[in-house]
Amino acid sequence: MKAIKLSVYQESANYKVPVSHDFRESYPLPPYSTIIGMVHYLCNFKKYHPMKVSIQGSYGSTLSDLYTEYEFKNGMKFEPSRHQINVQGLGISRGVAQVQLMTDVNMVLHIIPDDQTEVKYIFNCLKQPREYPNIGRREDLAVFKDVKVVDIIKQHLEEDLRSGKYLDKQKSARKNWAAYIPIELLENNDDIFHTDTHDTSLAAGTKYNLNKVYSLVKTRKNKPAIRRWERHEVVYTEFTFLEDTVITADSDGDAVFTV
Predict the structure, then answer these.
(1) Which has the closest alpha carbon to 52: 1, 128, 8?
(2) Which ranges of the chain does DSSP label H, i.e. alpha helix?
């Protein structure tokens, strides 16, 4: 099995938590839907191409920033005392809100298309993107430090493998490195230990229910279809594989946790 491996850096980014509004909270790393959307946009795919994704990385800190927020209701007439913008008789309110930004983000992403004949095409689109890539908001530019094709294989550990380290001992370890690990992998494997990054939250990491892909579903006649998301429960955590464990890794020595 082959995968496209991306090493990415972002100075700052917001990976919006869907239920956050007044304060636009961010996930620590982008969810699967964000990465899949980025790949589909850069590849100019017009429909969903099934793929598996693995996301791991680190961030330096978080900060709060201000942004301009626009609010409107369908069909609401413009009222000078209530709205700041008049668009053809419809009223729009403009205000200031807060957004959480993750800073100094470093990531390793693995994209594994179900159709392995697409590997070369996706690699070329990411190696020479048709426009400057972004992950998160439109303004959250992403630097692709390295793009390569790697093999995904099963490997037997001869010693413990800690988060942020490679199977290749010659490579330096990464700091505060964590991954989205599918919860079923942790529940069914006693050879993985995991702890929270930065020692700031739960001892066993932080659980998220992340979006991956959606389907359009008609719920009411004469009404537009709505998005119904396929969600995956994961734990955002640092990890340790114990000696003698068989793990999934790439040919560079990075562990892979696909959804």
Answers:
(1) 1
(2) 32-43, 119-127, 183-187
- Percent of the chain surpassing pLDDT 70: 91
The CATH number of whichever domain residue 116 belongs to comes to 3.30.70
Domain of residue 188: give its range: 2-250
The C-alpha angle with vertex 10 and arms to 199 and 105, in degrees rounded to 5, equals 10
Number of domains in the chain: 1
Is a pLDDT exceeding 70 seen at residue 168? no
Helix/strand/coil for 53:
strand
Instruction: Let me know if residue 58 belongs to a domain.
Output: yes
Q: What share of the chain is helix, strand, coil (3-state, %, to 5)?
A: 10, 50, 40
By the 8 A CB rule, do 125 and 42 touch?
Answer: yes
Token output for 192: 């993985």
Give the side-chain half-sphere CA count within 13 A for 22.
0
Identify the CA nearest to 239 among candidates 152, 164, 185.
Answer: 164
d(CA 218, CA 216): 7
User: Distance between CA 257 and CA 233 in Å, rounded?
Assistant: 13
Return the structure tokens found at 243: 């000696």
Q: Is the pTM of this model over 0.90?
A: no
Residue 75 located in a structural domain: yes
Question: How far out from the chain centre does Cα 240 lie?
Answer: 21
Farthest-apart Cα atoms in the chain, separation: 71
Question: In this structure, are residues 90 and 76 in contact, taking their beta carbons and an 8 Å threshold?
Answer: yes
144: amino acid identity, one letter: F
> Residue 255 domain-assigned?
no
Nearest-angstrom CA–CA distance, 20 and 26? 9
For residue 172, what pLDDT band results from cuts at 50, 70 and 90?
low
